[in-house]
Amino acid sequence: MAEELRLAGCRSRPLASYLKALGLFRIVARQADPKAKARWHAGVLEVSSPLDRAALSEFLLERYAPAPVVSPWNSGAGFFASKPRSQRALEWIEDSRTPRFELLAETISTARAILGEHRLTPDLPKDERDAQLKRAKHDIVAALRARCPDEAVDWIDAAVVVLGADLAFPQALGGSGGLDGNFDFAGNFGQAIAATLAAGTGKRSRELLAGALDGTPVSLDRLSMGYVFRDDSPVNSPAGRADALGNPWDLILAVEGSLVLVAGAARTHGADTERALVSPFSARPTAAGYGSAVVGEKGKAELWLPIWERWTGLSELETLVREARAQVGRRRARSGLDFVRAAGGLGVARGIDAFERFVVLERSGQSSLAVPVGRIDVRPRPAAEAIASIDRWLGQLLRYAAGDRPAAHRRAIRALEQALFTFADNPAPAGAGAALEALGAVARGGWQASHRRGPRAAGLRFRRPLARGGRRRKP
Amino acid sequence: MPDDFASYFQRATGRRPYDYQRLLDEASEPAVLDVPTGSGKTHALLVTWLHQRLVRRNAPRRLVYALPMRTLVEQTATVARELRSRLGLAEDELPIHVLMGGESPADWRERPEGDQILVGTIDMLLSRALNRGYGENRFQWPVAFGLLNSDCRWVFDEVQLMGPARGTSAQLDGLRRKLGVMGRCETVWASATVDREALVSVDRPELGPVIELSKADRSGDLAERLGAAKPVERVDLGDVPDRQLPQELAQALLDRHTKGTLSIAVVNRVQLAQDAFRHLERALKKVSDAPELVVLHSRFRPPDRAARIGEALAPVGGGPGRIVVSTQVIEAGVDVSARLLVTETAPFSSVVQRLGRCNRTGREPDPRVVWLDRGELDAKRAAPYEPEDLASAVAALRELEGESASPERLAAMTVEERRPQDSVLRRRDLLDLFDTGPDLSGMDVDVSRFIRPDEERSVSVFFRDLGDDPAQEPAPARNELVGVPLGKTGDRTAWTFDYVDSAWRRTPARELRPGERVMLRAADGGYDERVGWTGDARDSVASLEPAIVADEEGTGDDPRSFAREWMELETHLAAAATAARTLADAVDGAGLPAGALAAVETAAALHDIGKAHPVFQRTILASCGDDAERERRRDATWAKSRGGRSRHKRRHFRHELASALALMANGGGRLAPNDLAIYLIATHHGRVRLSIRPAPEERPPVDRPDAERFALGIADGDVLPAQGTPLGRIGPTTLDLGCMELGGERSWTEAACALRDDPGLGPFRLAYLEALVQVADWRAGG
User: Fold this and answer.
1) A118 touches chain B (CB under 8 A)
2) Looking at this predicted complex, what is its ipTM?
3) How confident is the prediction for chain B on average, in pLDDT?
4) Exposed/middle/buried for B207, CB within 10 Å: 0-12, 13-18, 19+?
5) Rounded to a whole number, what is the distance in Å from the CA of A259 to chain B's nearest CA?
6) Close Cβ partners of B477 (under 8 Å, ≥ 6 residues apart)
7) What pTM, to 2 d.p., does this model score?
8) Which of B167, B432, B697 sits opposite A330 (nearest CB)?
9) Which residues on chain A are in Cβ contact (under 8 Å) with B429?
10) Residue A279 and residue B481: Cα distance in Å, rounded?
């Protein structure tokens, strides 16, 4: 008999919560019931499986086998003496010798062997270690992917993609190989595992788990949390320091959830090896549609994470993510603007009802935050289709803007992109006017043929971009 | 009494088998054959399979013989044909097919139940085994994938030249065992220089049985070859600048060449071979009894290559003799014996192979090996090899200086070689590859990282005298294609085939993909039939008449429906059902779950009912000669016509999707095939895979502009008229595309994933069944 559980703690935003929801579903479907299904309803995850709420807790506390998540390519992941807490956690896991940690322990020991082959011992002096890690990073990742158990490959692919002689870093995990500033997802995952699962099934463990699943109030542990937890709200924004507070189950489940967000080989190893490809549903930011809090900040990337409202199994969801189809005409969506167009045309898989949109911002040094900037419904947007007629021209313009250009040029082009986003999302007459105005500003901008670094030099031709589209899309 | 191996071998080859050859025949599923160059590996591998398959009936049906170079493919295919004729086997009893770049490979797939030998290059064969056949129609990838991963014995010869393919083949072997195949699918790796550790991988943890020379072999007939004299002379080129290298090489050859003999130089790069060849040409221009000159490398069109190889390998009958300058294409396995062999420094395993071309028989007078020692090289100058590998080879070769590098002496040396960390094929990669995907906009998985080293990625180029409409040029034939490294086509205008629009499209050089066929303008030059691809615009190229004119196939195309005789739908279904039954009876189905072969028969009996769709019938009637014929034919439902190709009124229309939807809508009725049969029906043209998606830029059909759901020319709510089938009559059915959506009760993706992930089926067996349905369909169309 299938139980339908509504898990109030697993909401579609912030990012940590979205990932947590995916993680919970992945664990249930992989380890408890392959036929389990999940859906989003009013922003909250619902899971259908034979487990009722009590059985779910028992399962997670007593039987759940954590995914083999290790990042030996990072210095702070517990393989080196400089992070004693993570190091102790890995040792505890290796020594525990219980079946539920078997895969994790095996992966840790393979990782140690590979580090050893690269003369990377735990006590290596910092400078030497960092230099050697940097040199050998590619080979270490490739060797891990070649030799670790299948389950560990999921994590490696979620964190790092080996592209020929290069490495690329998917965005969902901070875009730098399972690392956000000084925060190492895998090292902290290990710590959280050791902390929660070593603590047994007592009252405190149950409270923490209930806090994570149901959103019930619970006093938090001292625990660093990664950027996926930082969403610009006053409570969370100071996090990232070692004394921040958090619920270890939130971290465990979010890391498990990141394992769902892995692009398929068609995306990562297609002909078009552009960097953003390595993360499914991620895009170059389009600074439009944000709340006032983040205006004027530099976005690193956007994530457009799918919301579906029909019961769906994990393998189908994974197929959807691996395909990560978001297309504008015949090309892949590359920016926030493209995504809103894909969601308004026929560019996304049928059955995705909406996207939860997050902007990843870089703040305070290298650590980031992921700000939810709204839900974009999938529905026909005639205006979005109208933009198709200037697609080619716009693409050239944006490529031009990506280079080292005069500030005025970049500003005008960004304004155009914002205006088009607003117009595509909601084609009110005012939006159309703003879009036309921005187009005009770009077209008569200060870059005439004489300007050597102007768009003309970059091969752009300003030949009436609206000649066809303009008439058709009169509001 | 059946033939014992020794007399069978004698009959096939004309001589008694060596002891190790007998051991190979007796071994059960041997994994590695490790014997020195020149000791008869090819015969061993071919004859043991022939004996096991044809006499003892205990080997898989298909022998898939994969080699790293085209030269070897041609040579091995020739040997196989000789064996066949000595054994008195007819061609159709034992077809031997060759798969190389551009080869038209259609017919080998049409006999899944017959005995067969496939000989091909590693990239052609392995790309097919990975469901991304190079140069193959993308919609038929799953057929080759299905047939090459079940009921085969794979042989990888000259393993040391395989690059990443070595690890990939090991992983494939391991994954086949884990995911299950139809019948048996086994692999043998063979070489004189096998790095055994490289054949052990995460999913294939055991090396398996190894066959080597036995004691008896070391004293018998083989001994003369094993001890053949090959004195090594070192020429110090440490101080010679790179640009003088071609000249020095030419001089080394001219100084030592003897009349009436064969001299071979093996170098590391095409450019050097071509430049040295030009030097020799100039030097010998005015010489009256100059030796013949040949340059050999991989960048030739097949007819030119065949001509050059013919020249290089023809017996030297007295006279001035011959000088061949070659790249690695002649390094391994080629059965030729030179008196003089000149080589650059190469990784030691390659050196061993190269030396195998010198005094191979042990009977050359005054044999000589000349090693051009350039000292230590940096990464750039060492390319395509690694400096470390060359350094350890230099050390080993210095040890050999002045001595004889006989096969026996070489076998006793161990030289460390770097084992690069190649991309390793993991289970999840294979599952990704299983989906040949809905995305036709160029986002294909590039499998070349699993097959070749990076620097060898190339495209297949062909030249045409282009008129006004390059878009409609016919597809290239094998004889026109030449491999050119990606990025070396320069700023020439290039065209590639667009599968959505069924037309050749101009493509910038940076968007070319490995393995792709690229059309160039003959007037832009770059090729010389004696020297091969040079990239030099001054080298003029004559475009060839395409030998076979086959059109490329787009999403909405269906050439088999419009190329033959008129056939009514029910007749075609009945024929397909019969063909499927014949196939199902012929293959033993070992390892398939119960009901799997029955599902193939059901699928064949129902596969084309979607052709009853008015869109299809309208198109097929349009191919009638005149109105009278059209009127006459209007009362029947047709599956095939004789007319030429015509386009459906709805772009991208796929009848097999209509078939599958009709049967899904029919759920619960008498004609309710199971998910497996429906999957096989929907996928039988390779367009519908794990998901049902509209084609890129597909719009609602013109006659159903308001349809909310549509895909591949089918709109939600279309009605398929009633239709008779071999299994009974199916009433009019309303098609429901609800299954294309994520989740819900009847999600297509979920059902397809469940079949793929079913431990009793899995990707290999599923694809094998798909192949059977396709073949049955082909046979029924004839």
Assistant:
1) no
2) 0.86
3) 88
4) middle
5) 13
6) B102, B104, B546, B547, B548, B549, B550
7) 0.85
8) B697
9) 265
10) 37
